[in-house]
Amino acid sequence: MRITQGCFSFLPDLTDDQILTQVQYCLEQGWAVNLEYTDDPHPRNTYWEMWGLPMFDLKDAKGVLIELTKCRELHGDKYIRLSGFDSSHGCESIRISFIVNRPANEDGFRLERVEGRGRQQHYATRSYSLDRPEGTRYA
Amino acid sequence: MTDQPTPAKVNLAEEFDRSGVGPVLKQLDDELIGLTPVKQRIREIAALLLVDRVRQKFGLSAEAPTLHMSFTGNPGTGKTTVASRMSEILHKLGYVRRGHLVSVTRDDLVGQYIGHTAPKTKEILKKAMGGVLFIDEAYYLYKAENERDYGQEAIEILLQVMENNRDDLVVILAGYADKMDKFFQSNPGFRSRVAHHIDFPDYKDAELLAIAEGMLTKLHYKLSPEARRALSEYIPIRRGQSHFANARSMRNAIDRARLRQANRCFEARQEIDLDALVTIEAEDIRRSRVFAQAG
Known about the structure:
The complex is a heterodimer. In chain A, 20% of the residues lie in helices and 29% in strands.
């Protein structure tokens, strides 16, 4: 199952050139671009691992692409997302975020039924990948 | 490039006008006094880039030329000033994408403990992408007497990026001529990757006088005729003394003359007119320590 989240989720994956253009837009707006990766793609998992510090004070998108290439070398079998943080007063949050890398095989999610008190039915979604230990989930 | 129709003829002058580099070169000519060999070299580089662009229109192969440079010269000969102009020129010619200047020294590149240098250097390189990285006093990166110095690590990363990201940034190394020579000798990798070695000559006395007057005009001051004579006597004496730094010495001399002028106006305790406020008199310059030391 192809996981989608963030901006452009309805589009096919962006090419490096397209990513470069988006990043350049972010930099021109004065946003700090950040890279994060994870192998637990549950939609409620908002805390992904950071790839280094957010990149402040860049002028050209190429610097971000260099980091992305390095991140892909190490975590190419995981989800990588790129986000732009707007630090201006009144916003101070993520303005843009999209997936820039995904594993070759995406397992998808299963629906789990959990019985609560009084045989009340609860539902949970759980990624198949979580059955395997961290680091080997998409290897 | 191939799908564009090949033009039969290209007007180079028109192409030059369109690039917008003309005004920058002219500004360089007007604002920087002297430095003839430097200006000549910059004009050559600009011409090469322009012709390369035209060649591309004809479908001729035009691999981006290596534009890493080294600026050598004595203190105060205008290396930093020219570097900032250089980034503008290269941007106008479409050689670098953004045209900003990132000016660093050893401290910005080399870390203090193991594993600190690489992230630091890469951080700076990321910031310099699409622009010009100006490394002042580049020879301090390499310390021959200490082989475990972290500078070596920064050098290796720099060399790698200079080679792999040739179309993303231009590196300009600057420093005093003799030390730079030694630096290049001990780092042959740098020597071969730096295409343009530009030497900044010392300014002549007349040029220094013109520079000083230019600085004063910018600050809305002027020299009285006697003060001008005093300053032209000042320059050769100052040159003979230690720590002479060309244009920078002139700026310092002017700053001190302004101090004395302000003090003179203040001590007089009279009503003064605009002329007195903007004029630097001979005594403001003659009271300099430089004359006293010359005896």
